Amino acid sequence: MATAQTRTLSRIMMAPAVIVLLIWMIVPLVMTLWFSFQNYSLINPMMTGFAGWANYLYVIGDPSFTQSLVNTLILVGGVLAITVIGGTFLALLLDQPIWGQGILRIIVISPFFVMPPVAALIWKNGFMHPGYGMLGHLWKFFGLQPVDWFNQYPLFSVIVIVAWQWLPFATLILLTALQSLSEEQREAAEMDGANAINRFYYIILPHMARSITIVILIQTIFLLGIFAEIRVTTGGGPGYASTNIAFLVFRTGILSNDIGAGSAGGVVAVVIANVVAFFLMRAVGKNLDA
Amino acid sequence: MGSISLKNVKKSFGEVQIIPDISLDIKDGEFVVFVGPSGCGKSTLLRLIAGLEDTTAGTILLDGEDMTKAPPARRGLAMVFQSYALYPHMTVRDNIAFPLKMAKASKEEIDKKVEYAARTLNLSSYLDRRPRALSGGQRQRVAIGRAIVREPKAFLFDEPLSNLDAALRVNMRLEITELHQQLKTTMIYVTHDQVEAMTMADRIVVLNAGNVEQFGSPLDLYKKPANRFVAGFIGSPKMNFVDGPEAAKHNAHSIGVRPEHFKLSKTAEAGTWKGKVGVAEQLGSDTFLHVHVDGLGLMTIRTDGDQTFSHGDDVYLTPDQTRIYRFDAAGKAI
After folding, report:
1. Which domains, ranges and CATH numbers included, belong to chain A?
2. Domain B4-232 has CATH 3.40.50.300
3. Looking at this predicted complex, what is its ipTM?
4. Which among A73, A75, A107, B187 is least buried, having the fewest CB atoms inside 10 angstroms?
5. Which of residues 152-211 of A touch B (CB under 8 A)?
C-alpha cells in the first residue's frame, strides 16, 4: 500500500464489504433505538406515537431490572471463575505425559461442540431433574432428599451448565499456552530451587497471563448474552431469580408483547455491555500489550 | 568445595543407549569441558549431573555424597542453558534474585548478592530492564548472574555461546574463563566447538557415541591423542590421515600429520609427497592450502600468510618426522 494509487484502489475494493457490514449493524441498531422511543405494544395496537423516555424509565425503574443486572454479573463472574480456574487445572493435568493423551483431549474438548439448548436439556433432564436425573438418583442412593436444582438454586444451576460448556474452551486455550512454555525455563526454575507450587506461581502463571486475559475477554462477550440455557431450563424463574438482562429483554419484548420497552431494554443492555467491556479492558487489557 | 565423581554411569532412553558406561573424576575448582560431535551424549551427561535426567545405572557423587537420586535443587549446582532460559516477565534484578528468593534469603542479603553479581558481570545499569530489551551477550551474562548468586558447588554450562555471533563468542569465552579464575569454582562446560574446549579448559573430556575417548589437559590431547578420533577432533584445521602402504612404511595401519607440521617446497628434491594446490584459504596471518596429493587424496596444509601459491601449482610436502602420529587397525595410537 505504498502509493496513493494502491491506497485508493484498496479502498474501492474493500468498500462493498464495509458497506454491507455497516448496513447489517446500523439498521437493526437504528430500528431498536427508534422502537425504544415509541409506544409500541402488540396487545394494544391503538396506543402509538412518541413515548419519550417512558420506555426507559419503565424498564430501569422496574425492580426486576436491578435483579437481572446483578444476576448477569453473578452469571458472568461465576462462569469465568469456574472456567479459568478449572481450565488452568485441567490444562496442567492434560499437559502431563499420559497414555491416550490425544483421545483424552478430544473428549475434554467435546462439550464445546454441544449446542447450548441441547446441553441445557441434557443437564435439565439427565442430571438435575429431582425425579429421574442422575444427581437425584445419587442423592437417593445416599438416602438424601433429592435437590430440585432449578427451583432451589436456579442461578447456580444455570452457572454450572454454562461453565460446563465453556470449560473446554478455556482448557484448550490455556493448554496451548502451557505447551508453548520452553522446557528449559521450567528446568532452570527447577535448578533454581523452585518447587512445583513456586514454579506454577512464578513461571507458569505469568507465562499464561496473556492467554487467561484472552479467555476472560472472549468469554465475557458471550456470557453477557446467555439466553438459550435460561430459556430451556428455568425460564428466568422462579420469579426473576435466574433472569439476566438478555432474558429480561426477551420477557419484556416477546412474553409481554411490549416492543417499545423491550427495545429500550435492548439499548440498555448494549450500554451495559460497553461499560463492562471498558472496565474489563482497563483491568486485564494491559496484559495484551508487549 | 565441588568435586564431582561419576561411577559407571549409564543412560538409555527406552531401547536407545546414549551413554554405555562412563566413569569420571572431576576435581574441586577444575574447569572441565565436555566436547564431542553432536549426538555424542555430552549434553545428556551434563543433564545427568544436574539431575534433570535420571540415570539408568551408576552413581553420581558430589563432594563424596551420593546424589544419584537427589532432585536438581538439592544438588547445589547451577546451570546456564543454551537458550539462557531467562524468565521473560521478570526484570534482570528479579531474574538474578529468583534462586535466592526460592531459598528464602532475606531482603538485604538478596540485594547485596544481586548488586555484587551485577557489578561482577557489568549489568548494574540494566537491572530494571526485561530480558527482551537486552542483547544476546547481556542475556548470557544475566543467566550467569543467576547462576553465581547461589554460590553453587559447581557451574554447568550447556553450549552457552552457540547463540552468539563470532566476535561476541570470543569475548564471552574470555569472560567466562576470567570468571573461573575469580571464583575458583568447579565448572563443567559442554560444547561441540573444539576451539572453545582448547582455550577454556583445564581438562577436556572428548566424547564420542557416549564413550569417553580421552580425558586430559588440552595440550595432552593435542600432543598425545589416545586414538584416531581424538586426533581428528582436536586441532583446527583437522589432522590429515593416510592409510595403506605409505602408513606401512611407518609400521602403522594409518598415520596422521597435523596441517601445521609440514614443510613446503616447490622443488622435487626437498619433498616426500607431490601434489597439486587446490583452494588456498588466506586468513592473513595463515594460509590454509588444500593440496591434492598424488595417490593419497586431499590434505590441508597450514603455512604462513605470505605464501604465494595459486590454484594448480605443483607443490612438494615433507611431514615433520618427529610429529607423525601412528595408529593401529583399531584406531588406537601406537
Report:
1. 56-287 (1.10.3720.10)
2. yes
3. 0.79
4. A107
5. 182, 184-185, 187-195, 198, 202-203, 206-207, 209
